[in-house]
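Customer escalation, tier 2.

The customer says the design service returned an amino acid string that "doesn't look like it belongs to this structure." They asked us to rerun it and document both sides in this ticket. The original structure tokens are below, unchanged.
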């Protein structure tokens, strides 16, 4: 019996993979950096320019776009979506489909040890502080302080960080 990779796993040659990375089926990774001891669930896409630190867990059905940085020991729940464009449009002013030249990628940072609950959406330009917790289903529209707990739509401070 031969050992075969999980089916439908797309890992582009430009992906920088750390040691002991576990990647499940139906994933799409390209142009990104993945640290050591990371677990990436099923149906996850991580785009070019995204950086995942060491000992992170990215749960299934998650979308991590260009411009997102997860520092070490970050937990991402199921079906979390990151956004990197403040003014998304399909077409340019001239009417043609937009290219990379037609928009600005706005970076987002999730600091060490933070956790983001399932179903959360994180708008671009946000910093989620060290060991902060974002509740499931939240829409994060502004920075989250270190150690804080936020939840809701839009996410509101539930507990102050230390």
């Amino acid at each position: 019996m031969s050992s075969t990779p999980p089916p439908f796993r797309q890992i582009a040659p430009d992906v920088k993979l750390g040691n002991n990375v576990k990647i499940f089926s139906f994933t799409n990774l390209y142009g990104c950096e993945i640290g050591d001891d990371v677990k990436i669930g099923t149906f996850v896409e991580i785009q070019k320019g995204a950086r995942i630190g060491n000992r992170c867990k990215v749960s299934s059905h998650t979308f991590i776009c260009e411009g997102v940085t997860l520092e070490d020991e970050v937990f991402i729940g199921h079906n979390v979506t990151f956004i990197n464009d403040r003014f998304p449009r399909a077409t340019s002013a001239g009417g043609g489909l937009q290219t990379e030249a037609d928009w600005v990628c706005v970076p987002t940072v999730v600091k060490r040890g933070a956790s983001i609950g399932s179903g959360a959406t994180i708008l671009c330009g946000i910093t989620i502080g060290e060991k902060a917790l974002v509740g499931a289903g939240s829409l994060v529209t502004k920075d989250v302080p270190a150690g804080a707990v936020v939840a809701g739509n839009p996410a509101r401070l539930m507990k102050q960080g230390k």
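Tier 2 assessment: The sequence is consistent with the input. The chain has a mean pLDDT of 94. The chain has one domain: 1-85+101-162. Sent an explanation to the customer and offered a walkthrough call.
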